[in-house]
């Protein structure tokens, strides 16, 4: 049975919420709606970060989540300045961009219908309105049609779009990843994609290996096993099969400006995950 909100969506929102509460300046990313979206579970999640925030696994989780959010929203802003007017969030989870959106862009949130229903209930409970600039496209990534769901939600495939695919690929089978890329490969020229992906064990540093040991097994036990890993060259080759060229492929350290790593807290980059920015 698909849970209302996946554990990974909750832990990612908790990492965004905890970052300004637990970590020192400079802030990598600030999400004022992360705590409200956690709802009744907010205190439980945030207390854990407050009490154990310096633990390497929790610190690595916060770093990974806030880096990918900052990188993606910075690239999105650049794309909108160049004329992109559609933003597709694949596996939107508890991402809050659509409800604090300062940009002239329409947001299409793609996720499992039960997750979307749970999110909308949390938004209502928090008193956060759903603006006209957001549409929901329910889909099961392993079985449903992304293209059909987006079109039903009002997406225009003839206009360029910016696509974010964060915290998802590791949980998908290679076949499901290819099906999704095949759908994205039909988007209009000028479309862009930002995705994060986990690298194979041989490319991880000790922090990345420790995180994988501590988190990978737990994820499998709760029904969300890690399934897919890529070296940067493998990711570039895969994207090229579907008409995308890599514009940037960054590790956690390079994904944000160097000044954000002048820190006095426990946040530090690891080599567990990377971010790829690609265009058509």
TrEMBL record:
EC number: 2.1.1.-
The keyword Cell inner membrane belongs to this UniProt entry's keyword annotation: no
Keyword hit for Nucleotidyltransferase: no
Molecular functions (GO terms): methyltransferase activity
InterPro entries: Ppm1/Ppm2/Tcmp, SAM-dependent_MTases_sf, SAM_mthyl_Trfase_ML2640-like
Gene3D superfamilies, A to Z: Vaccinia Virus protein VP39
BP-aspect Gene Ontology terms: methylation
Keyword entries, A-Z: Methyltransferase, S-adenosyl-L-methionine, Transferase
Pfam families, per the entry: LCM
NCBIfam families xrefs: mthyl_TIGR00027 (TIGR00027)
Stated role: Exhibits S-adenosyl-L-methionine-dependent methyltransferase activity.
Family: Belongs to the UPF0677 family.
Protein's name according to its UniProt entry: S-adenosyl-L-methionine-dependent methyltransferase
Organism per entry: Amycolatopsis cynarae
């Amino acid at each position: 049975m698909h849970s209302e909100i996946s554990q990974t969506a909750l832990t990612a929102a908790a990492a965004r919420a905890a970052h300004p509460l637990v970590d020192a300046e400079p802030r990598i990313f600030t999400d004022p709606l992360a705590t409200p979206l956690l709802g009744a579970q907010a205190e439980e999640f945030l207390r854990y970060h407050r009490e154990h925030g310096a633990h390497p696994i929790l610190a690595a989780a916060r770093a990974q989540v806030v880096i990918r959010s900052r990188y993606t929203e910075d690239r999105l802003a650049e794309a909108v300045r160049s004329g992109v007017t559609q933003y597709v969030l694949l596996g939107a989870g508890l991402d809050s961009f659509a409800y604090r959106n300062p940009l002239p862009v329409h947001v299409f949130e793609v996720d499992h219908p039960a997750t979307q229903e749970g999110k909308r209930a949390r938004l209502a409970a928090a008193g956060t309105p759903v603006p006209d600039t957001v549409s929901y496209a329910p889909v099961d990534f392993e079985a449903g049609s992304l293209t059909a769901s987006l079109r039903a939600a009002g997406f225009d495939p003839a206009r360029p779009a910016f696509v974010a695919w964060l915290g998802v690929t590791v949980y998908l089978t290679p076949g499901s990843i290819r099906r999704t890329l095949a759908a994205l490969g039909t988007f209009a020229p000028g479309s862009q994609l930002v995705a994060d992906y986990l690298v194979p064990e041989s490319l991880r540093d000790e922090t990345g290996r420790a995180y994988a040991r501590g988190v990978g097994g737990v994820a499998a036990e709760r029904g969300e096993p890690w399934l897919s890993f890529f070296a940067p060259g493998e990711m570039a080759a895969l994207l090229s099969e579907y008409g995308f060229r890599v514009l940037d492929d960054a590790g956690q350290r390079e994904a944000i400006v160097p000044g954000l790593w002048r820190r006095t807290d426990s946040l530090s980059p690891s080599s567990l995950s990377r971010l790829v920015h690609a265009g058509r």
